[in-house]
Amino acid sequence: MDIQQVLGKDGLLDQAMDGFQARQTQLDLAQTIADVIVNKETLIAEAGTGTGKTFAYLVPALLSGKKTIISTGTKNLQDQLFNKDLPFLLSQLKFTKNPSIRLLKGRNNYLCRYRYQKSLHNAVSRYPANKALYRLLPSWTETTDSGDLVELSEELNNSIVQREITSTAENCLGKDCDFYNDCFVYRARNRAMNADILVINHHLLLADMALKEEGFGELLPNAEVIIIDESHQLSGIAERFFSQNITSRQCKELLVDIKTAVGEVPGGFHAIQDTFFDFDISLKKTQSTLVSLDNRRSMEELLENEDINNELILLVQNGRDLSNALEPMVAADKTIEQAYLRLNAL
Fold this sequence. Notes:
Elements: H1 3-7, H2 12-16, H3 24-39, H4 53-64, E1 68-72, H5 75-93, E2 101-103, H6 113-119, H7 131-143, H8 159-165, H9 184-193, E3 197-201, H10 202-214, E4 225-228, H11 234-241, H12 248-262, H13 268-291, H14 299-304, H15 306-326, H16 334-345
């Protein structure tokens, strides 16, 4: 079977889809992609609206039979490819054996069993607007196969709750977690390693590249074909993964995690409260000083500003003081240990 037989006039899709019209631009793009796959070359292509680019890259990828990673710009497009476009094409191509297709998203899309259990003791679980979600979660966690929170899109409409019940690379306990063997994130990654067609997004693609560059392992399997849809978005996302940065959000989330963790140790928060609030106030002052700038600056330019330099020095010192206050409690709880390590890594 070739491109013409699938996308051409009187082809498979012409017969299967109402309103389908064979387009020469789509055929040309698909054939070019097929040739590039065979010759192991690189192609950058721009397709105008109405070209039908999605099928133009999916069809040759499927016909090639090669292990393929497809990276998209948005989670919505990921879901569309995985739940709609790829199943439809496979139903028409009728391979003797269908390739295995997997969907892999960032960890903040999957429920973290550990943080969910922790959240049951926090105010977020008792807030009236979240009660319907928390009534559903016990049964859902036992029946869901993926742990993908998109399955709860009607009940989960609060980003604050989502942060409470998902993990980040910084606060994940890894193999030290009591729920490691039932972790939805690691389950999804293990399945992805064996997929013939893997659908991801640009954030995951670049995170994997950054890990490999630093020698810390990998998130994604090797592939013979990599297709990057909406590639014009890559440059902006790449800034995050190939530069060093610290954000106020990182610090605020860390403070929340510290407060929650030490709160479970008798007298824990009392022991760190002075340094905790000093760091919190210093963070707010630093953020306020930076917000007053009229545009983006390099680090060298920032440090030349006396006010900013002084606030950053104070922030670092307050961070060290908080770290010293936390240190005696590190052995008491692995969540405190993780927060302590994150604080020292800032």
